[in-house]
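User: I'm curious whether this sequence folds into something compact or stays loose and floppy. Could you predict its structure so I can see for myself?
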Amino acid sequence: MANAPAHLLSIEDGIAVLTLNRPEALNSINRQLRLDLLELYPRLDEDPNVKVIVITGAGDKAFCTGADLKERSSRSTGEMVHDRHYLTAKSTSALSSVMKPVIAAIKGYCMAGGYEMVLQCDISICSDNAIFSLPEVTHGFFPGGGACQRLPRLVGYQMARELIFTGRRWDAKEAKELGLVNKVVPLDKVMDEAMAMARKIASYPSVGVIQAKRALSQSMEVGLTAGLRYDVEAWVGCMHSDEWKEKLAGFVRKERKS
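Assistant: Here's the prediction. I'll summarize afterward.
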């Protein structure tokens, strides 16, 4: 496994499946995998053959358990500080900057930076045995990969404080109750469910899906007035797209036949 690639990638029928491929280390993120992901995200976003991205972890034990602490323990403080500034800082927004829909297919453990990765995804589907946690405070630091900013927007400040301050674990049932995952399914159905949703989204004109994601992102960043203004501009942009014109022409032809 030492020579195995840190990630696997397949693209078929408009769907890119990105697999974190370090199952022997619970798919924890070492330096090589972080570099791979930072290169992959913009490449997939720009690839015209990709309409939806599915991210998962190799094996059934874990989606991702965050940074590879064994690797960190072997590196100097200076090297780790450098990575914090130039790699980790980039990764806190690299995935959320992707304008194509991203689905997280979660099996087993999803912790620390692994869960912060999920917080950057658009849709999350997890196994019924999934376990989540942000345990950083128990090690003397805190979730610095975006959880302190994104989690309160999903569950409110009170619950976010509890989850982050205690570092406790929560299971799939609680994740669903808190609105942190979209669906909970049996372990052997996670990828089937994720791919079914990806295929449905990929079947639609990409211009509308991408503009919808941009508008939703705006709702988290700007005020209501500015957000509504953006919606109008994006909607007009959709009307000028070839995909919209083709769909409209098809609708008109269908109406004439009926």
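Summary: The longest strand covers residues 7-12. The beta strands are 7-12, 15-20, 52-57, 62-64, 102-106, 109-111, 123-127, 131-133, 169-171, 183-185.
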